[in-house]
Every structure is written in structure tokens, then in C-alpha cells.
Design a protein that fits this description.
Shape: elongated
Number of strands: 11
Number of domains: 2
Radius of gyration: 34 Å
């Protein structure tokens, strides 16, 4: 003898009753037309999946990037008012016909819903099983997809293909996690900038690459103190990150000032200050660290030279320029 599904007596209205396994249950009855699209509402889907509506929406919010507007949208107040009226009318008709199953559907779908519900399109429903991550969700999705195929506006739905798509989605999640772990490991084990570096004659590229890494490492400021600079130095400083200020202290040069003006018209500003007197050594300040340069930046690696991280503070060096 077939058992009649138990009524949800004594439970809160927000709890759901999973009755989709009933032989007479018709998934198509829960597919609604809203904004010209065939959709299913969150409280109906939570009933099918056998989960609380609150949990379903929480999982969707945690994976918001997987549900663009063509996958899911929230009903307007007007749409929700019209729908509530339709649901109430359907419930009244079902009670008059004394249909236990349909009465339970209407009660489960509407009871406890206070906020405007979310509507899921076919693509959004297909994505739901991947975020809920349960065998029940996959099985229910297959039934839902089959129901959509019986509607003229929905085509190209194959249960086996949907299962494969869902499996691919799960594998993609696992792959993303592995890739993130690999990237973290690479970053943790990547070589760090040395406090002292010596470049043999002719190692121009090695020297340029090292200074470029120093520039890229800056978080707030870069200050170059160098008697001889040219447009190559401007290109080097353009490698700095967003929000990092750049300042050059150098000797006066008409050609360089012309290049600097043209650069600042198009690129991020690099400030310039004329050195009050000739300086022998060259310094590169990266945030709160000072590096002593054995040669001008534009000539690094041309001859034997070194770059050394100093113990002094940037303020000490900058103070001696005045």
C-alpha cells in the first residue's frame, strides 16, 4: 500500500520537505514563466533537493561568480506579489480537490518565504548541483533537466551529458585548488633579492634585470640619486607598481629634461630634482631601504660593478643632499 507523505507538522515554516521521489510528483508543475524565461524558484528547488532554502541561497552567494544574470535573478516586488497570489489560488483549488500531494507542494513552496525569491534558469539549475555537491543534487538535476525538455522553449537537454558536465565542473574545482597550491609553493620557494650582487664586465642584462626586480618590489616610493640618467632610466622606473611614487635626483641636462617632459605627458609622473652639487656615488632608495650602486643605472653591467644594500636609512642619505 502506497504511503501518503507525512505532513510537516510541528516544524518551522522555513524547513523544507523533500517529496520529489513520490511517483506522482510532477517537476514540470514547478517550472514557471517569468520575464519570458522558463525558470524555477529557490524555494521550489530547495524542496526538491531536500535542503533548507536558506542553505541553498548561502551556497549560491558563496559561489556568486558561477551565477551570472542569465543563470539567476531576483524577482521584483511586483513579480513576487503576482506570484504569491497565483500560489495562493492554486493552493485553494488543490484543497478543494483534496489532492494531498499537490497541497504539500503548495505549502512547501510558499510557507515561510518572506524575502523576494530568486529565479534560476536552466543553466543556473545545472550549476546548482555543483555548488551543493551531493548525489541527491545530481539526481534531482537530472529529473529537472528532463522536465525542461518537455517544454517547447527548452531544447538540447541530455541527462547523460548533464551528468558529464557536472562531473567536469567538480574536476575543475579540484584543479583550481591544486593550481592555487602550486602557485603558492612556487612563490614561497622563488629566489629572493640578494642584499649584495656583483656583475662581471658585459653582464648588462643580468644587472638590468636585477635593478628591474628592485623597482618592481617597491610598494610606496623609489628615489634614484645618479649623476647621469637618460630615457632608459625613465623606462626602468615605469616598471614600478601602481601608486608608487618615483623621484630622480640628477645633474641638469637639457636633453633629459625634454625626454622627461614628453614622458610625463603620457605616462605616470616621474619627479626630478637638480642635485645641488656633484655626487660621486649613486643610490637607489626602495621604500625604506637604501642600495649603493657601483655604476650609473644606465651603465650597470658594462663594466665590473656591484649593488649593495646598506644599513643606513633613506632619510640620512636624502638629508646629505641638502
Amino acid at each position: 500500500m502506497e504511503k501518503t507523505p507525512k505532513k510537516n507538522v510541528g516544524k518551522k515554516a522555513s524547513e523544507v520537505v523533500a517529496i520529489c521521489d513520490h511517483p506522482n510528483f510532477n517537476v514540470e508543475s514547478l517550472i514557471r514563466t517569468i520575464r519570458g524565461q522558463k525558470v524555477m524558484l529557490d524555494f521550489d528547488l530547495s524542496m526538491l533537493y531536500g535542503v533548507q532554502n536558506k542553505r541553498l541561497n548561502e551556497q549560491v552567494k558563496r559561489n556568486k561568480e558561477r551565477f551570472p544574470d542569465d543563470f539567476m535573478f531576483q524577482l521584483t516586488q511586483e513579480e513576487w506579489s503576482i506570484l504569491r497570489s497565483q500560489i495562493a489560488t492554486a493552493k485553494q483549488l488543490d484543497n478543494e480537490k483534496n489532492s494531498n500531494l499537490k497541497s504539500q507542494i503548495a505549502t512547501s513552496s510558499w510557507g515561510g518565504v518572506r524575502k523576494r525569491p530568486y529565479a534560476f534558469t536552466r543553466n543556473g539549475i545545472a550549476m546548482l548541483s555543483s555548488v551543493l555537491r551531493s548525489e541527491t543534487a545530481v539526481d534531482v538535476n537530472i529529473r529537472i533537466m528532463r522536465a525542461f525538455t518537455s517544454i517547447p522553449q527548452i531544447v538540447n537537454n541530455n541527462a547523460l551529458m548533464m551528468q558529464r558536465i557536472l562531473n567536469v565542473e567538480m574536476h575543475q574545482i579540484e584543479t583550481d585548488e591544486k593550481v592555487n597550491q602550486i602557485l603558492k609553493t612556487i612563490e614561497a620557494n622563488s629566489p629572493k633579492l640578494l642584499n649584495e650582487k656583483i656583475f662581471a664586465t658585459g653582464c648588462v642584462w643580468d644587472a638590468w634585470a636585477y635593478v628591474s626586480d628592485l623597482v618592481r618590489s617597491a610598494k610606496r616610493r623609489i628615489v634614484l640619486i645618479d649623476n647621469f640618467v637618460d630615457d632608459r632610466v625613465l623606462s626602468l622606473l615605469d616598471k614600478r607598481g601602481d601608486g608608487v611614487e618615483a623621484m630622480i635626483h640628477s645633474r641638469y641636462s637639457e636633453s633629459f629634461l625634454t625626454d622627461l617632459h614628453k614622458h610625463n605627458v603620457q605616462q605616470r609622473e616621474i619627479k626630478f630634482t637638480q642635485l645641488p652639487h656633484r655626487n660621486h656615488d649613486r643610490f637607489l632608495i626602495i621604500d625604506d631601504e637604501v642600495y649603493l650602486l657601483g655604476a650609473s643605472v644606465k651603465d650597470m653591467g658594462v663594466g665590473l660593478c656591484a649593488i649593495t644594500k646598506m644599513q643606513t636609512t633613506p632619510e640620512t642619505v636624502l638629508g646629505l643632499l641638502e
